Amino acid sequence: MSAWEVRMSNSRGVPYFYNTETRESMWEAPPDLTQEQIAALPGAKDYLPGGHHGEVAGERPAQVRASHLLVKHRDSRRPSSWKEPKITRSKEEAIAMLKEYAAQINGSPDKFAELASKYSDCSSHSHGGDLGFFRPGQMQKPFEEATYALKVGEISDVVSTDSGVHLILRTA
Question: Is 166 designated active site?
């Protein structure tokens, strides 16, 4: 029997994995556990998305995890980023760039992370675009709706928000 259990972080409001023997805690699932073992851990049904480390048909999970590749444009709410102090491209140019990235990604999560690290205008670029877990109401509505509509492993079409245009990869 595993010494791991799933607990909820009081400060971040997201689940984490805790080893009752070693007192080790981690945000990511222990790498030596299978999906079935993770789903069977104490607390998994209470705290992991969908209650079964997956989704029950028709039920919206309590939270999702996603990565994104953001391309800002001059009409974005903050038209600057870690790589460009003043962004002057049009929204149409930003969409064209994103479509080119989508063609290069071609459904590959590894390529998505590589391009997000290199080209995303979000500070999450340093984590391959990973935004971590979030619940309804924590992201801009179009972003949230697009993410919840995706299945785990799927990549969105272009999604437009006040921040810019995004490709979204749902990871959990």
Answer: yes
Phi, psi values for residue 149, rounded to 5° = -75, -20
Judge whether 125 counts as a catalytic residue.
no
Q: In what side-by-side order are the strands of the sheet with 130-134?
A: 130-134, 64-71, 164-170, 159-161
Which one-letter DSSP state was computed for residue 36? H
* Candidates 67, 122, 124, 125; catalytic one: 122
Query: Is 104 labeled as catalytic in the residue annotation?
Result: no
From residue 130, how far is each of 43, 67, 114 by CA, in Å?
A: 24, 4, 11
- 90 as an active site residue: the answer is no
Respond yes or no: is residue 35 known to be catalytic: no
Tens digits of residue pLDDT in 46-96? 777 655 444 444 457 778 999 999 999 999 999 999 999 999 999 999 999
Q: Mark out the alpha helices in the chain (DSSP H runs).
A: 35-40, 44-47, 91-105, 109-119, 141-149
Per-residue b/e over 117-131, b at no fewer than 16 CB within 10 Å?
eebbbbebbeebbbb
Mean pLDDT of 106-120: 96
